[in-house]
Amino acid sequence: MMKLWTDFLRGLWKENPTFRLLIGMCPTLAVTTSAANGLAMGLATSFVLICSSTIVSLVKSVIPKKVRIPSYTIIIATFVTIADLVLAANMPEMHKVLGLFIPLIVVNCLILGRAEAYANKAPVHYAIADAVGMGLGFTWALTLLGGVREVLGMGSLFGHALFGANFTPWVIAILPPGAFITLGIMVGGMNQLTAYLDQRKKTSTRRTVSGSSVAQ
Amino acid sequence: MRNALPLVVTLAVIAMVSGAALAYLYQATAPVIAEQKELALKEGILQVVPGASSYTEVADGSAVPASTDGESSVSGLRLFRTADSNGTHTGLAVLAEGVGFQGAIQLMIGIDPQTQAVTGLKVLAQQETPGLGARIAEDWFQDQFQGKSLSDPFVAKQDVDAITGATISSKAVADIVRDTAQSLKPILVQEAN
Fold first, then answer.
1. Does residue B132 contact residue B163 with C-beta atoms inside 8 Å?
2. In this predicted complex, what is the ipTM?
3. What is this structure's pTM?
4. Each residue of B127-179: pLDDT tens digit?
5. Residue pair A173/A182 in contact by the 8 Å Cβ criterion
6. Which residue in B has a C-alpha nearest to residue A146's C-alpha?
């Protein structure tokens, strides 16, 4: 049970695909022009990731090592096509927005990466926990990135205007350079925060250690 | 070579299962997707012509002559004649397709043949940059075409407000409207009578 929990939490923060592992950068930079786009892309990717990790984990023993990559690619491409068709049939508005980027989920290295690094070694429930964690980690990262860029570049969040008419949007934030700048600042901030938290953890342990020695 | 057989079999089985699953799903979703497209088309037509409640496609719509100067930005036109609930002819709706910044832009343009004016415009499909060119689908941009005369110049940044940072997409829409108006001139003369 404990391991399930750690597998799940790993993707959310410590090994967050976007901010820590820096994988799947292509959709991250391309679609995060608004919070809603980031959220939808994150969820679509999560769906493909969870399904493909499950299947890869189930069939790992019957796939010869030499053809594992093409096999995983077919599995992933199948689920991407499923996501594409289902979105087109049930959520045409969302499909219109994401249209171009959905087929590109196939080449998101996050998905093949998790299949290769984890799902083909782990039992299926761990693989699912890992995929759900990674998917949610990817989703919150993309939503946050999209949110920041949308606020700066359009003065709105999830399509709702935040500022009055006097606000001049920084158009660069939703242009491609804005993606790199925002991502860079966020990765830097994330590193600072992690370093600070580690430092605090260390000092607090030292304090308890010295405290107990004093008590002796 | 002997060792290759399991590899081939594995890949073949995976590909077959995947193919079968997708074929099934495609069969299941194809009618729904087609219906959604039809619905979007209908919604577009009824939205750009005020008072319209039904429409019929003009059969020779695809035979609309292209702009005479040969440099038309419009690559395909479909023409619809609309009617209100009494069956009275209310106007025309044109589905025009042209080239945008990254891909095709599909516009539904409503036209009043009597006054030769645009009654409405709606972007049905586009692949412009999300957050920039994609804003051609926002109301304020689409609504500015309403009431314009077909003989207007339709030049972005002059009589058409452009989107900041997306001049090419704005210009593409204005060009498509202008060239559509050009192509439709002979038909509009007939329609007005």
1. yes
2. 0.75
3. 0.78
4. 887 677 888 988 889 999 998 888 888 888 888 888 887 889 999 999 999 88
5. yes
6. B131
